[in-house]
Amino acid sequence: MLRHLPHFKDWSAGELLELLEKALYLKEHLADYAGILKGKTMAMIFQKTSTRTRLSFEAGMTRLGGHAVYMDWRATNLVLAEIKDEIRYIAGNADLVMARLLHHKDLLEMIAYATVPVINGCDDRYHPCQAFCDLLTLREKLGRLQGIKLVYVGVWNNVLNSLVDLCHKIGVYLVAIAPIVNEPSWDPELLAAAERSGFFRRAEDLRTEVRDADAVYTDSWVDMEFFLDPAYEAEKKRRLELMLPYQLNAANLAGSRALIMHDMPIHPGYEIDRAMIEDERSIIFPQSWNRMHGQNAIILRLLGLL
Ligand code: CP
Fold first, then answer.
1. CATH 3.40.50.1370 region(s) of the chain?
2. CATH number of 13-126+291-302
3. Which of 32, 36, 141, 218 is buried most, with the most CB atoms less than 10 Å from its CB?
4. 10: Cβ–Cβ under 8 A, 6 or more apart, which residues?
5. How confident is the model over 53-92, as pLDDT tens digits?
6. Using 50, 70 and 90 to split pLDDT, how confident is the model at 225?
7. 55 CB less than 6 Å from ligand 1?
8. CATH 3.40.50.1370 fits 130-288, yes or no
9. pLDDT value for 228
10. Ligand 1 pocket check: which of 46, 49, 53, 55 to mutate, most ligand atoms within 8 Å of Cβ?
11. CA proximity to 131, closest of 182, 170, 184, 98
12. pTM over 0.85
């Protein structure tokens, strides 16, 4: 059956835990899977900038013996034509599609018309691959997931939604300290389900919450498409002033043994102090390198090969 990945909402805890274990196995035995995608092509459609998502998917396809085609939205006829027509053409040439889009509704349109799996490479509501690979990193570093405490501090955004989606089902206690909400990412149904599970709550005091946390996670306070936008300057300033007390720095993390996470790109001096990036508790780079390994498992699962 054709399965897409707009988010993980329709995945059970058992399916998620099983795929995480398989992702770890795949990482450790990558050479054994070197030819599994021979002859297969992934179309990678980008409406926004990317370093990790582009490279990790492309490198993953290469490692598995397949091929990835990078398609910058602005250099394709997606700028001129309707998504429903372009995606049907693309699906006739590719075995799967990964799209990083501005709006979730456009991803849903691709899914409605594509005849091959479509993976969400981050939109304004969800970033499922990021969160899956983050949990892979925590499973690897801590040896378990169920019962651990993860504190997210930052703006309520697509990444937090996907962490909420996964953590409450798997049994990771997720505490969100998010005084600002990116409106397009707000998902009251997901929030209600997470709150009912008992594995999610909101909080305000970072120093209290990190005392017994296993990991603390931050993200950019300003979405990538707005970071260099002069029209967004006043909102950017407001956010930086309001969020600065929530920065990951030595004072806020004093006495905590929590592993330090960030999905990158990093803005040192804003959401995190440079010293915390380099701190011995930081797992930011292994976290970023796991993007490829977790996504390899997702690709193979969607193609029915894992
Ligand atoms: N974390 C993440 O998705 O990185 P990129 O924006 O560089 O792809």
1. 13-126+291-302, 130-288
2. 3.40.50.1370
3. 218
4. none
5. 999 999 999 999 999 999 999 999 999 999 999 999 999 9
6. confident
7. no
8. yes
9. 82
10. 53
11. 170
12. yes
